Amino acid sequence: MIPAVTELASTLEVACRRRPDEPALTYADTTISYGRFWEQALALAGAYLHLGIRPGDRVICALRCCPEHLVAVAAAWACGAVHVGAHHDLTGSELASLVQRTDATAVVIQGRIDAADTRALVDAVGAAAPAATAIVHGTADGTALELAGLLGTAEPVEPTSGDVERTATLFLTSGTTGQPKAVVESLSALVAKVRFFADAVAPGVDDVHLMYLPLCHAFGLKLALMALLSGGRLVMLDRFTPSEALRLVTSEQVTVLPATPTHLTLLLTALDPTCHRVESLRWVVSAAASLPRPLAQQVYDRLGAAIFYVYGCSEGFLTATTDRREILAGSVGHRVFRGPPGTPAAGSVRVVGQDPRRPLPPGEMGEIAFSAATPVRYWNQPDAATDGWYRTGDLGRLEPDGSLYVLGRRKELVNRGGQKIAPVEVEAALADHPGVADAAVVGTPDPVLGEAICACVTPAGASPPTLDELRRFLTTRLARHKLPDELCVVGRLPRSRTGKLDRPALLELVSGPDRHRERLRPR
User: CA-to-CA distance for 316 and 190, rounded, in angstroms?
Assistant: First the structure.
């Protein structure tokens, strides 16, 4: 049972203090108890206060999936700060931009590669925001404070209590402009969504939850909180590989497995019954992309687990289902998140045309829209859903029984294995290559990723760049998951009379049977 406390720092404290000697987190064959986890969180909270971080200040955490990431989350909430999760693979310029846009007071950094890379990240943040404090997980090489030192020397503090409607975190979501928006999430809303998950999965103290999803994303963080608040054990893996994930499922007797459809495809391909034991699995929790019927059927048949399938967005709107019939039919269910207790009535979904207030008839395709009790708030940007409805940009249909089917999306984001990539961000970086005269990006079908990032370029000279050359060029400009998986050289990009890129025509062009696409890996 999740503690019946709404203030999130207090909720975590209750969960930790009621089982202080029980295992909370396992990482790299080392396990720490709930008591030790909470001690570290309060110690880091004390260090934050000593560094001048005050309630309401933004603290960016750009760590991998590791115990220190969750310690940093809990420490921010314990001292009243706002946690801002950032992908650990961001480049220096990307991280510096985020620090500036959120006016962050501190940033917790983990180098992508080595000490030199860590130094480059610290320098980039320092140049963009000299007043921001950089804290390094690992060796700082004299360039910044070390996280381990703060955990070992700081005096713990009592958690800061406050308004349950105060901001707990900012969830970043990529937009079609390439500039991520920061969704403001309150303490009460975050706890309510964790409970929404827990109502379906019914986690308990005997559950073992595997976690390798990015904790900077809403889905990963909420699943991690569900594990901790219910008293289970969280087994953490900082970088997913199917072999290592299956090894941990076997050795740690994992009962709750989060996995996007891409992860599931890779796991089932690598599954070897002679060395992998999956009988412990109770649940597979999936989201971020469509779950094809054959893949869902394999989960039921080969993993022997039930499926909790979630459809939603960083703005906080969710539907979910555990119904096998609905999942195999391709539906994302009809159970809609209703909002925190005590908020005005909300939590309905409809499919609409131009007017979100007028739903389309059952079975007709349109845009999926959710009702919102209050406007969706973005940090330092105009609110969304000010008319009471949030339009997702996704296409879908509602059946007469209320089940929702997601059929595609209006947005131009590439859905690469559950990671949403803004094409214009990659296009802007491609345009800087001296061998590229014009560039565009589309998502092409991929049996593993769902969609691959296909860079379509018009060469500036007689010899076009190779895919490897472009990826090496972009490595210092883009996070690794944003790098192109494919390269297609075209004579010109299809554009409208006004010069706007015709993306559907481009996708049709590069998908033609006679069009060669250089791929990072064979099909």
Answer: 9
- What are the DSSP calls for 254-269, one per residue? --EEE--HHHHHHHHH
Is 80 exceeded by the pLDDT of residue 453? Answer: yes
Residues in the chain: 523
Please count the other Cβ atoms lying within 10 Å of the Cβ belonging to residue 343: 16
Q: Kindly state whether residues 133 and 78 are assigned to the same domain.
A: yes
Phi-psi region of 426 (alpha: psi -120 to 50; beta: other; left: phi over 0): alpha
End-to-end Cα separation, the chain, in angstroms: 45
pTM for the full model? Answer: 0.85
**In contact, 405 and 332? CB cutoff 8 Å:** yes
The reply to whether 302 falls in a domain is: no
**392 and 471 housed in the same domain:** no
Within-domain flag for 208? no
Query: 45 is in which domain, residue-wise?
Result: 8-185
Helices (H), 341-483: 423-430, 467-474
Average pLDDT over residues 322-336: 93
Name the CA radius of gyration of the chain, rounded.
23
Q: Is 68 helix (H, G, I), strand (E, B) or coil?
A: helix
Instruction: State yes or no: pLDDT of 392 exceeds 80.
Output: yes
pLDDT at 383: 82
Does a structural domain hold residue 233? no
> CB count, 10 Å around CB of 463?
8
Q: Residue 440: which H helix or E strand, with range?
A: strand 436-446
Asked if pLDDT for residue 176 goes beyond 60, the answer is: no
Non-local CB neighbours of 343 within 8 Å, separated by 6+ positions: 373, 374
* Domain shared by 474 and 512, yes or no: yes
